[in-house]
Design goal:
Layout lengths: L1 E6 L10 H13 L2 E6 L7 H8 L5 E5 L12 H7 L5 E10 H4 L3 H18 L3 E6 L2 H10 L7 E3 L6 H9 L2 E5 L9 H9 L5 E3 L21 H12 L3 H15 L1 H7 L2
Parallel strand pairs: 1-2, 2-3, 3-4, 4-5, 5-6, 6-7, 7-8
Helix pairs in contact: 9-10, 10-11
Amino acid sequence: MLIDSHCHLDRLKAAPDHASLQHLLSQAKSRGVDYFLCVNVRQKGFTSMQQKMAEFEQVFLSAGVHPLDVQEGLDTQELYQYIQDPKVIAIGETGLDYFYADETKALQQSCFEQQIALAVDVDKPLIVHTRDAREDTIALLKAGNADKVGGVLHCFTENWEMAKAAIDLGFYISVSGIVTFKNAGELRTVIRKVPKDRLLVETDAPYLAPVPHRGQENQPAYVRDVAEFVAELRGESLESLAQSTTDNFFNLFKDAAKLVGR
């Protein structure tokens, strides 16, 4: 069994309605992908995402504000209301992105700090986006006592030093289809080093489709391609990698484990 630990099902052009989304999830199921974490990026978009995913028991949710969407605002009281839904198993996607939005650095940091505090308060792990902000990301996680709840650095593209610092804080490293790209040599070196009990796989669909689907809209079924590539990269069988990443998912997201009776 595989789990797509990070996707945006509500943003898939190929799944604008219930029937088409059911079809895509069934396609994923046929490739051994049983569960999905649909990640919130805009606070204003949570309710529509929640409604669209309500009938899919295999889909878990998160609630949070992406660093590239912080200018739309963050209301932690509203987020607190959203996470009363048992399907909401994490806070995020939050974090820092200085690559695309260096000009909102201070606002990003404030929103990140508030979401870390919320995660600690409600005892839910964090989903962290980080790009060109290695030192500040780790520093804010440490300052906010994020080690109390842990989380994941999703779609990881940074260096081993950052991965190690996050792992030391109790975080997991999630690898996306980027690892299959030709220019991902440094990332492959990092992924080989990540301990087996700290690794997750994801699609980040509809973005970043892995080889051999690059250029297409990404979809949850393609997490199988990511897993196959990573297993070969690390010298493991696909079965072993699938088992460990599934166990890791449920060890991190304990609310999801409770929902499925693990």
